[in-house]
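Annotators were shown the component list below and the corresponding predicted structure, then asked to write short factual statements about the assembly.
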Amino acid sequence: MSSTESDTTQSFLFPITKKINNDRIITETTKFTAKKRTLVKSILDKLYEFYSHPPETLDTDYIKKQVNGMYSDVDLMAPEILYCKSPNEITIVKPKIQKYYTDIAESTFELKIVNQIKFKNFDFSQEIQEQLDSLKQKFVREATHREFIIDYYRSIFSKERVRGHITQRYSHPVESNFSMHMRDSIRQFADLLPGSTFDSRLYSALLLMYLADDPFATKIIGLLTSGIFSFGCYEKHIVLLLSPKLIQKDDQSRLHSTDSPAIIWQNNTKEYYFYGEKVSESLWEKTVSGKITWLEVMSIKNIDQRTAVIAVIGSERILEMADAELIDKSKRGNELYRIIIKNEDARNTIILAVKYKDPSTDRVYISFVPGIDDNRDPIETADHAMAWKGGITRYEYATLKIES
Amino acid sequence: MSTQLIQEMSKEELLQVDPKTLETQLVRHGDAWLKPIDSIPDSAKVLDTDVLLQGNEHTHTIVGSAQILQYEDQTFVDSKGAWLDHFQHGKLPIPPGMYELDIERELDLVEGTKNVVD
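Structure shown to annotators:
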């Protein structure tokens, strides 16, 4: 065949144009039509509404119908439904699953929930459209949409695959499977969408691509919009985590509260967050009560948690509490401080701390740095301290331009 | 494109450039630092992944023409002109060249020098 032919597949939300040119099949994606753009926007609005106001009552018959339908779609028997009122209730359902999956380690049963509600001020922008187009092109290269996704779901629910995944260290079979095998493009795209966990955000992404005629995706979304926060699929069981009673967020939609827990689950389990970073109840209480010391703040191992606590207290306040002396400020905005710790034995310890702002997130970080660098040269400037943090010389740091 | 020219560019302008046109240079992407090096060990193995660094929540991912390699506990990038991407830190170009990955470090008053944990 030497002529050029075109065929547009209209059954998908995003039409694919197939061209046959000199015996080569070329697939191209097309932009959204105005009608489809409106449809996608309405779906997203529905999801955002749900995640803002989860239903108060649980329609278990409806949920069962969605679950059974999902399993039936991939040729599996209806699973036993195990409800959890909070992530830690997995310990209650664990014995039932463990009995079936006898060959797995106990630690793999922890239902790890990424308690981060994603609420972007979603604007159906050119960027999203381009991402979707790009994703679709990728899928087209690998298989058709439908073949790809059906194979994908089948692989998730196959006995061998499920067994394989739950015997790994990953605690959440579905999520780990997606995380491991989805390319980062779709992961990042999913991160732009609403959802309580990575899986649900991913399902939102899949829904965007398959809603038009994919019954499987609509069953998943049906589940997620009927009071189910997250779920973990096993061959003969499905663990459903109920939506929390309370979710508190900041103005950037990160889990956050300085007045109360950021999440209260259905069994009254509480979780505490500062600006999207989970903290322990004791750290939360010490922070909001003002009883935490600057040294305790600086001793928080996880730098993002430390930064979140610093954000609550204020970086200036932390440095003031430490009697920190500013010894250098660079053009890049980095600041170097000297802090004297008075020990009980009257011997003072002098330490250095560098304060810097992440150029992409504007978060203010404070890190301790040593008094000398790897070449035993004294660190006397803020940029020298930053260079040490990056494992480079101060001269190399001075050339740094590509930074975020 | 010379480093001098790059230094005169705004971040927005930098995002518009073709990474292939840039000179090899230092790249900082949050806690991931890519340091230019002269060569990558011959026995370094190419990894079948686009994830350069995995954080607790998000990943530093390479998009475009580049390979991630590993030799013992060192990670390298062989870029022909690519992008580094992250949900929080956004996109940055990786000019063509060979790089070693360094994870940002800090001083812990008890444990001493350690890589930052996020």
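Statements collected:
1. The CA atoms of residues 286 and 292 of chain A lie 5 Å apart.
2. Chain A has a mean pLDDT of 70.
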